[in-house]
Design a protein that fits this description.
The complex is a heterodimer of chains A (145) and B (293). With 145 residues, chain A is an alpha+beta fold. Chain A is built from five helices and four strands, in the order βαβαααβαβ. Chain A has two domains: 66 residues, Alpha-Beta Plaits (2-Layer Sandwich), CATH 3.30.70; 65 residues, no CATH class. The longest helix of chain A is centred in the middle third of the chain and has 24 residues. Chain B has 293 residues and is mainly α. A two-stranded antiparallel sheet of chain B has the order 1-2. A two-stranded antiparallel ribbon of chain B has the order 3-4. In chain B, α9 runs antiparallel to α15. Classes of the chains: A alpha+beta (145), B mainly alpha (293). At the A-B interface, α1, β2, α2, α3 and α4 of A face α3, α6, α9, α12 and α13 of B.
């Protein structure tokens, strides 16, 4: 019987594989394949995302806000906060709408990044399935025989 | 002259203790393996990561323009993003010192308030020229550093062994997968905490120390309370215009640095695990389709 589990890269995944081996499945009956979310997976970490653009613009606007705030009625703190908010919005929207970039360049939450296939005797399949779920599997499927 | 292995084996046979022999041979093989690994990493021309007591240092791949901007916001922060911590600390210290001595932040405030004569009067001309030169150098140097590190990283061999964990007498360090926004918000609350979240504890405490100095010298929190419960005019009077001008850059720079560091460390975590899985579970004998007949 084949059990197929989808995981995110995590320490729990390694615990799951360890548990499977401890429960008596041989290593040669386990297959773990890393999945790429995009064609060019290296590009992910290279590009800045909307949060980074927001932080950069917020800082620039906040500096101007604080400096100009000394001559304005509400004072530097309020104008600094206004500058930071407007700046973050400007950078974030600029990146999302104009450059059509992602909001967050880190990997998507709960994306299936690793597929684990286990060949196990029918008697053990219930235990292994529970074990996969307990160790953070996003989804588990099985194929009889 | 027998090889050390032969000599040792002969000794074990002489001793006649099977247990001892198994133990020692196992140790010997382990040593052999670690030596091979050491040689391997020394042979790597473009290593990706080095783990030390201070945390993880790696060749980073941020956008060069972004690095240049953080150097412009606060000279030294661009170098922090590039994992060049020693020069980053020296740049930030010299920035704070020369800026204070030359009165640059006060001049910036006067300029944005339209008081140009005051701005010209407060600026120390002797220091301003050197300040501008070093400032522009920091921006340019971090920009080209970012481009070069990106190229070095693309030359780094795929699937090279990345160290996952280090136990040092004073520290335990490891590559961990974390949430980028958590570090971002912690550094917004108090700059330095996001760096601690990323296990860069020396940088974290350095930035926290700087932030305490900025809070103490600018009276920002007391002025914030006055703003909430008193009057805006009194709150503005309480503030030191020189010191509060540093604060947005430190906040933004620390938040960005924490965010970027988490994103890159997560990437390293995934790469390492992928290599491990391929090596350990890549040679499976699983048969999915049985040949019929």
């Amino acid at each position: 019987m084949l059990l197929i589990g989808c995981f995110a890269h995590s320490l729990e995944l390694e615990q799951a594989l360890d548990d499977i081996e401890r429960s008596g499945i041989e290593r040669k009956h386990i297959l773990a394949v890393g999945m790429n979310l995009r064609v060019d997976s290296d590009a992910e970490a290279r590009h800045s995302d909307a949060v980074e653009m927001g932080a950069a613009w917020a800082t620039a606007f906040a500096v101007v806000g604080v400096a100009a705030g000394f001559g304005l009625a509400w004072g530097p703190i309020v104008w600094g906060l206004i500058g930071a908010t407007v700046g973050f919005g400007t950078g974030f929207c600029l990146h999302r709408i104009w450059l059509r970039g992602p909001a967050r360049s880190g990997t998507q939450a709960n994306a299936p990044e690793v597929t684990v296939i286990v060949q196990c005797p029918d008697g053990l399949s219930d235990d292994i399935r529970l074990l996969l779920y307990r160790r953070g599997a996003l989804s588990v499927g099985e194929s009889g025989g | 002259m027998p090889r050390p292995f032969d000599r040792q084996r002969a000794k074990y046979i002489h001793a006649g203790s099977i247990l001892l022999r198994i133990g020692r041979t196992h140790n010997y093989c382990n040593n052999l393996q670690t030596n091979a690994m050491k040689k391997d990493s020394a042979r790597t021309r473009y290593p990706i990561l080095r783990m030390s007591m201070l945390g993880i240092t790696y060749s980073s791949v941020p956008r060069p323009a972004m690095v240049a901007w953080w150097s412009a916001a606060f000279p030294g922060f661009g170098h922090f993003i590039l994992n060049q911590y020693a020069r980053g600390v020296l740049f930030t210290l010299s920035e704070m010192l020369i800026n204070k001595l030359s009165g640059l932040n006060d001049a910036i405030v006067y300029t944005f308030c339209g008081r140009f004569d005051d701005a010209a009067a407060v600026l120390d001309a002797n220091l301003a020229f050197g300040y501008a030169t070093i400032y522009l150098f920091a921006v340019w140097d971090s920009y080209r550093g970012a481009r070069y590190q990106g190229r070095l990283r693309s030359l780094s061999a795929r699937e090279q062994p990345i160290r996952r964990m280090l136990i040092h007498p004073m520290e335990v360090q490891y590559v961990e997968r974390k949430k980028p926004l958590t570090g971002f918000f912690y550094s917004l609350l108090f700059p330095g905490l996001g760096q601690l979240y990323n296990h860069r504890f020396c940088l974290g405490f350095y930035i926290m120390f700087c932030w305490w100095v900025h809070i103490g010298m600018s009276h920002a929190l007391a002025a914030g309370l006055e703003l909430a419960y008193g009057t805006a005019a009194r709150s503005t009077e309480m503030l030191s215009q020189h010191w509060i001008m540093f604060m947005p850059s430190v906040l933004g720079g620390a938040a960005y640095h924490a965010y970027r560091g988490t994103v890159e460390q997560n990437k390293l975590f995934c790469e390492e695990q992928r290599t491990y899985l391929k090596k350990t579970y890549g040679r499976s004998e699983i048969v999915i389709f049985r040949e019929s007949g």
